[in-house]
Write a structure and sequence with these properties.
Order of helices and strands: HHHHHHHHHHH
Number of strands: 0
Number of domains: 2
Largest sheet: none
Strand content: under 5%
Number of helices: 11
């Protein structure tokens, strides 16, 4: 059995990424992707089932790496943390935020595709779903702080979801609008100043 020639795969993916970023998933043209890769439509279908399969191939590494970070966060038992650690977990630490932006910058194209080009794909609700997952992970810290009387008892998961939607929107937008790395670093400092979680959640002083 002949081994498929995979040498043209990088050309296909490069052309597909350009087409999706320029036109979105639904308006993207398989013919344009093939023309950009200098291949026939048949050659593309020998490797990918169609646009959906191509799109998934372009974002799968980003999705995998994002959820690996989430899994690490979920692995921490909030109940095992001291009061000081629980409160400190909500610090808007600029170094930590910059780590997130650097991580996302390393996955720039995949992340931009997930934010801007998912309509019509299995990832169409990515922005909402990611916040929902982060709400679940982060909510465990808030619930533990509330159980110990260290945080505002009135903030429930629905309210936390709304707050985290606003927070993650400030992270999404630079990648949606094509910020340079210098612009992202400046934006990171602004985000840290904007979100005072300790004051919002009344951490350490629930009153």
């Amino acid at each position: 059995m002949a081994v498929p020639d995979r040498s043209i795969d990088p050309r296909i993916l490069k052309s597909a990424k350009k087409e999706f970023l320029n036109n979105g998933f639904e308006k993207a043209s398989l013919k344009a992707i093939c023309d950009g890769a200098d291949i026939t439509t048949g050659a593309l279908y020998n490797r990918y089932k169609g646009k959906e399969d191509l799109f998934s191939a372009l974002v799968e590494e980003t999705v995998h790496d994002l959820y690996a970070v989430l899994a690490q966060k979920n692995s921490i038992d909030a109940a095992s943390l001291s009061d000081e650690q629980l409160i400190k977990a909500w610090d808007m630490d600029e170094d930590y935020m910059l780590w997130w932006f650097e991580f996302l910058e390393q996955h720039h194209d995949g992340f931009a595709l997930l934010l801007k080009c998912t309509e019509g794909t299995a990832y169409s609700n990515f922005q909402h779903d990611w916040v929902e997952q982060m709400t679940h992970a982060t909510g465990k810290y808030l619930e533990e702080a509330q159980r110990r009387g260290l945080a505002d008892q009135s903030i429930d998961p629905a309210e936390l979801h709304i707050l985290l939607t606003a927070f993650w929107t400030t992270i999404y937008e630079p990648f949606i609008h094509g910020f340079s790395w210098n612009q992202i670093k400046k934006h990171c400092r602004l985000v840290c100043r904007l979100f005072d979680w300790k004051n919002t959640l009344k951490l350490g002083n629930p009153g």
